[in-house]
Design a protein that fits this description.
Elements lengths: L7 H13 L12 E6 L11 E4 L17 E6 H7 L3 H19 L4 H7 L3
Parallel strand pairs: 1-3
Antiparallel strand pairs: 2-3
Helix pairs in contact: 1-3
Length: 119
């Protein structure tokens, strides 16, 4: 199958599989984080594969976060498809992008993610 022909249903199933395949321990301390898929990133960031929006755990004080909206991780379907060479590569990139954005939730910066191979 040509990666450009990936349906919404197949893409969603690849996202579901990536969540199931997350490395052990990655989600152990995640709480109140929602995962979304959007077709395109904001116009000022074309080609962006995913984004984390929230308050990283390293920046949270001892105060309560019970009335704070959930942190979000958004995957951008069309740039991920355009980046991928085939469906297997797309599945890999979805997993890498989710792990990358989860790492931002934990307060890990871009340079360190690249050092760890999740850039």
């Amino acid at each position: 199958m040509d990666v450009s022909e990936v349906s919404d249903e197949l893409f969603d199933s690849l996202v579901d599989q990536a969540v199931e395949d997350l490395p052990p321990g990655v989600v152990d301390h995640m709480d109140n984080v929602a995962l979304f898929v959007e077709p395109e990133p904001p116009a000022d960031t074309p080609g962006l594969l995913g984004i984390y929006d929230g308050i990283p755990l390293t920046e949270r004080g001892g105060g309560s976060f019970s009335f704070v909206p959930p942190d979000t991780i958004t995957l951008f379907k069309n740039p991920l498809i355009a980046f991928a060479e085939d469906v297997e590569h797309l599945a890999d990139e979805i997993l890498v992008t989710i792990v990358h954005e989860i790492a931002h939730h934990y307060g890990i910066e871009e340079d360190r993610l690249h050092e760890l191979g999740w850039g």
